[in-house]
């Protein structure tokens, strides 16, 4: 199995073009006759009762013989057994009657469904360990396959901090749990919790906090690598995905006008006053470029003589800083600010990262978009609070900005939480994510960390300590209440050449100036988040989700690792390369935050983005902004769709269940 997985891994790392599927039967939707008929239909108040009566009183042709009528009688029984939600008279439904083989042989069908069942069981196991979500519909069918009763109360869910009530202080430390005398230490890249120092010296961790087994994880990963390369499974999943898209297209063709009519009859709610959440946005680029330009000019007018930097022991005012850059804020324009990503950044992640520097000056980035500088990140906090104020004015818009923890030194959490509390960067419209850049090679090359294990310790140990002794770390404990999850970010197209396996060195042994593989990062982040969540759940605190950037570029094995470990992902473009993974993401209902504008400037042209295709097939997708500063011109946020296809998942799981029976 390992040898086969290594062969597949090697083939996936090669750059191979993806053949776009072009249908010969695609027709433009701007037919004037169709538009006229739709307009007429939407403005005609049809009698629903009359239509319902007509549907119920349809009879068989009188010319049919009694024997023919008896043959057709089971069709009526099928309609009687349909669920209530399918009996809506205003919408036409299409029923597919027959087996679920989808054109493959029964042997291939059985092999495929057994593999899919095991893959879903693997994901469910790791989601339960980390207190992350797994759909109840899929879980119910898995229990049916195993012959066990399904109990909804046995499902696990992440724990979030409720928003403060009116008049309640979100920075109040009196509600924190009491300190305990437990000890947290790292071993083999994972932080364990012990009852006391003696137990830590003997490595006897608390039994109620279970870590994912390393060898089992590798075996599960190798099985999934083999599964996504398995011929029968690829054929079967490809056909099922085609079927799902066809069902959507048929439904759209039959019921588009009825849905439009129902939409117009819906009182009060429309796109602008339904709640929308931007689940993928980076705090350093959460403002648009005009907002940043206006803030720079305003800060210069008010604080021109303020000391904002110290260079070689000398104080530098803002006026002197701009003079050293040969700039005057009055002359700046959106174009000269040069933070907008264009075609010059396509396939160039290095140039894209350089766009975070206004006018190409890292000094301005440090001043306006960093939490740690000479003015303690005051300007950055004010910009974020202005963005939050815009969201509050819009009333129905929310966001989850990402702040960075690098793992370069253990004081990063203290400084970040101090910034959050000092400037009171709280808004009911905001929750926070922590992003961890995969740049160990840079830190090791500069001797900031001795090995990869130290980087992991700097990232996670302070969180354990604040969970065990919240009153000893009050600012960090308050900040963590408003954090919803962790993200792993960087350029996925960079290939490390290392395959994560049982032969991989432990993090304390990884002391070379070379970045570990994506899967290596993902496993150790997931393992530590799992331990944190189990500890925080036991202590009555909020838990964290693992939500990495995944599938934007690189090998499809990235998506495989996220399938095992992540609650949801950002981007997911490479799912179109693997029908098996795409189908598994559908059955497991893994949310995908997609950013077509971001992809258009980096990895994939807008017209080729698979978002609409994923939506039609029933995957959970949402629109996100990613970096408004780089991609947007206005304050309008291009968000946010979140659609579930529970009935479709139910039918697909019934398909797998029938094969197992």
Number of helical runs?
26
Structural class: alpha/beta
Number of strands: 13
What's the multimeric state? single chain
Main sheet, how many strands, which sense, barrel?
5 strands, parallel
Q: How much helix, percentage-wise, in residues?
A: 40-55%
Shape: globular
Strands of the widest sheet, in order across it, are 3-6-7-8-9
What's the end-to-end separation, in Å? 27 Å
User: What average pLDDT do the residues reach?
Assistant: 84
Radius of gyration: 28 Å
Low-confidence stretches: 16-27, 46-65, 68-80, 636-647, 657-661
Q: How much of the residues is beta strand, in percent?
A: 5-15%
Topology, pairings included?
Blueprint: H1 2-12, H2 32-42, H3 48-56, H4 66-80, H5 106-129, H6 136-146, E1 183-187, E2 190-194, H7 197-201, H8 214-228, H9 231-265, E3 276-282, H10 289-303, E4 307-311, E5 314-317, H11 318-324, H12 334-337, H13 349-354, H14 362-368, H15 378-394, E6 397-404, H16 412-422, E7 432-437, H17 440-445, H18 452-468, H19 474-481, E8 483-489, H20 518-538, E9 545-546, E10 549-550, H21 557-565, E11 569-571, H22 579-587, E12 592-594, H23 596-602, H24 611-617, E13 621-623, H25 628-631, H26 646-660
Parallel strand pairs: 3-6, 6-7, 7-8, 8-9, 10-11, 11-12, 12-13
Antiparallel strand pairs: 1-2, 4-5
């Amino acid at each position: 199995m390992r040898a086969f997985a290594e062969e597949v891994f090697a083939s996936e790392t090669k750059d191979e073009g993806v053949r776009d599927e072009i249908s010969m039967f695609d027709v433009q939707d701007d037919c004037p006759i169709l538009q006229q008929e739709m307009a007429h239909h939407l403005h005609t108040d049809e009698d629903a009762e009359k239509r319902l009566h007509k549907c119920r009183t349809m009879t068989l042709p009188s010319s049919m013989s009694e024997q023919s009528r008896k043959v057709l009688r089971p069709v009526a029984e099928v309609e009687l057994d349909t669920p209530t939600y399918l009996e809506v008279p205003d919408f036409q439904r299409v029923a597919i009657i027959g087996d679920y083989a989808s054109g493959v042989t029964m042997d291939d069908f059985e092999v495929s469904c057994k593999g899919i069942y095991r893959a879903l069981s693997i994901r469910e196991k790791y989601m339960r360990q980390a207190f992350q979500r797994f759909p109840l519909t899929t879980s119910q069918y898995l229990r049916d396959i195993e012959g066990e009763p399904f109990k909804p109360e046995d499902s696990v869910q992440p724990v979030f901090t409720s928003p403060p009530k009116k008049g309640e202080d979100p920075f109040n430390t009196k509600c924190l749990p009491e300190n305990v005398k437990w000890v947290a230490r790292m071993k083999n890249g994972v932080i364990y919790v012990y009852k006391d120092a003696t137990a830590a010296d003997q490595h006897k961790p608390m039994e109620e906090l279970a870590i994912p087994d390393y060898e089992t994880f590798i075996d599960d990963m190798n099985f999934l690598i083999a599964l996504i390369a398995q011929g029968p499974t690829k054929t079967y999943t490809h056909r099922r995905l085609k079927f799902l898209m066809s069902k959507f297209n048929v439904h759209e063709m039959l019921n588009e006008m009825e849905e439009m009519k129902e939409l117009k009859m819906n009182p009060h709610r429309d796109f602008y006053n339904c709640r929308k959440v931007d689940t993928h946005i980076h705090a350093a680029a959460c403002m648009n470029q005009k907002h940043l330009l206006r803030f720079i000019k305003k800060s210069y007018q008010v604080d021109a003589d303020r000391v904002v930097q110290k260079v070689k022991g000398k104080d530098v005012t803002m006026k002197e800083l701009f003079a050293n850059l040969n700039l005057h804020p009055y002359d700046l324009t959106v174009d000269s600010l040069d933070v907008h990503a264009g075609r010059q950044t396509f396939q160039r992640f290095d140039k894209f990262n350089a766009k975070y520097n206004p006018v190409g000056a890292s000094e301005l980035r440090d001043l306006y978009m960093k939490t740690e500088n000479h003015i303690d990140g005051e300007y950055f906090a004010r910009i974020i609070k202005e963005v939050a104020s815009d969201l509050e004015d819009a009333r129905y818009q929310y966001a989850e900005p990402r702040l960075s923890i690098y793992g370069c030194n253990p004081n990063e959490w203290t400084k970040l939480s101090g910034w959050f509390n000092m400037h009171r960067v709280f808004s009911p419209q905001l929750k926070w994510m922590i992003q961890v850049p995969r740049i160990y090679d840079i830190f090791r090359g500069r001797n900031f960390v001795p090995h990869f294990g130290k980087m992991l310790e700097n990232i996670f140990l302070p969180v354990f300590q604040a969970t065990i002794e919240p009153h000893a770390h009050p600012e960090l404990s308050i900040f963590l209440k408003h954090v919803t999850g962790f993200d792993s970010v960087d350029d996925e197209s960079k290939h490390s050449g290392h395959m994560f396996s049982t032969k991989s060195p432990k993090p304390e042994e990884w002391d070379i100036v070379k970045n570990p593989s994506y899967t290596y990062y993902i496993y150790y982040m997931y393992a530590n988040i799992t331990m944190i969540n189990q500890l925080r759940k036991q202590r009555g605190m909020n838990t964290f989700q693992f939500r990495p950037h995944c599938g934007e570029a690189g090998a499809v094995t990235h998506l495989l690792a996220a399938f095992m470990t992540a609650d949801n992902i950002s981007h997911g473009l490479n799912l179109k390369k693997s029908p098996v993974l795409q189908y598994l993401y559908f059955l497991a209902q893994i949310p995908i935050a997609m950013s077509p504008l971001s992809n258009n400037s980096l990895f994939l042209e807008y017209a080729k983005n698979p978002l609409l295709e994923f939506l039609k097939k029933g995957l959970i997708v949402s629109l996100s902004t990613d970096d408004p500063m780089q991609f947007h011109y206005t304050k309008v946020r291009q968000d946010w769709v979140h659609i579930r296809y529970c009935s479709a998942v139910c039918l697909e799981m019934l398909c797998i269940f029938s094969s197992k029976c």
